[in-house]
Amino acid sequence: MKVRVIHLLVLVVTLSSFEWRFQVDDWLLEREKKGIKVFTKKSRWGRLKDSKAEMLLPNAKKDELVKFICDFDNYPNWVPRCREAKVLARISDSEFIAYMIFKSPWPVADRDCVLRVRIQRDPETGTITINETSEPRYVTRRSNVVRIEQMFSIWRIVPQSDGLMVSNENSTNPGGSIPDWLTNTQSVDNPYDIFTTIQNTIPSANKGKSKTSK
Question: Rounded distance, CA 152 to CA 130, Å?
Answer without folding.
Answer: 11
